[in-house]
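Final report, Chapter 2: Outcomes

The project's central promise was a pipeline that accepts a single protein chain and returns its three-dimensional structure in a standardized token representation, suitable for archiving and comparison. That pipeline is now operational. To close this chapter, we reproduce one record exactly as it appears in the project archive, with the input sequence first and the structure output second.
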Amino acid sequence: MKLTKTTVEKLPIPDDKTRQIIYRDSKLKGFAVRVTNQGAKSFVVEKRINRKNRRITIGSYGQLTVEQARKEAMKLLGKMATGIDPVAEDRAERTKRVTLGQAFSDYLDSHRQLTKSTTDDYKRSRDGAFKDWQNKPLIEITKDLVETRHRSLGRTSKARANNAMRVLRAIFNYAMDKYDDMDGNPVLHSNPVSRLSRTRGWFRVERRRTLIKPHQLNQWYQATLQLRSETARDYLHLSILTGLRRGESAKMTWNDVDFEDKTITIRETKNKEIHILPLTDFLLALLLRRHQNKGSLYVFPSESKAGHFTDPKSAINRVIDLSNVEFCMHDLRRTFITVAESLDIPAYALKRLLNHKWSGDVTAGYIVPSVDRLREPMQRITDYFMTEFNHGSNIAYIRQS
């Protein structure tokens, strides 16, 4: 049967059991029209290529005339006759047009195990450092463009410029494995961020080493006691006495606190390993007091909206004004580490308290960590802090047994 306007219009509709019927053209081999039980009619081409049967939809009848569909079919069948797979070719073309924005989305969708803080960091880089590149195809982002953008970002912040490029490097590494051409070969053959390493173009950023010094601890502590927000005050106290990172302590829920075993469990950590810490007498008392008045799932709930405590900035600024001690949240962790080292806490215990992994240490792999072994060093650290917090004041710290 030759497919014409008249014959196509008269083609019968299959029943629900049959669902669809293919009517093939007698004039052009491989050209056909597919009719479904819903009455839809679509033009297709059929041909065996690379040992596989291919059926490619050209378009629907109504949007295309029979003659328009026939001409398109001749083009596709001609390509297929020379060994070109139009489906693979179209996929390759779409792959070449993948934009940075699409790559970011695909990366985040396939890396759902990332912590919220890491995901937020990637989104900040996407929406900040590379906002104007979102619609740019990956193959158009060259080494020159990367180098120029890195220098531009560095005029504002060298650390943030380096971080943005590390994020971009991760996206490109992912894209090099993700997107292939019609033959299964990678569309991207190199990572444009690699130039920064090969030319030593990364900015030199000194690691921040600020912390609260021993003679400042009393001023700092007394200032925290003047905070109007009990949540902010307790959050700062727990952070400095545990060395937990900002998000680790903020996201803690009451399900993470075991009053019977006197421990807290941090589930979302930087190294993705569950971190269990023993509670010292001061921390236990702090959490018991908060638990009596709990009104939220979170130990430190937000005071302005649903969820956990997220913005200690105003509290930090208030403490700085009252104490003249400059600090940021990560300084509390550095202070904890420095105090622990000064007390000669054993290296393995210190690593466990900080939830640091041992790198290249065979012996460490045979040690089964026990939270009970951390109680004594943890208490020593708290005792030191409490002595310094109350140094020179009328309130003496009395350790509870």
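Archive annotation: The domain at 214-389 is CATH 1.10.443.10 (hpI Integrase; Chain A).
This record, like all others produced under the grant, will remain available to the consortium after the project formally closes.
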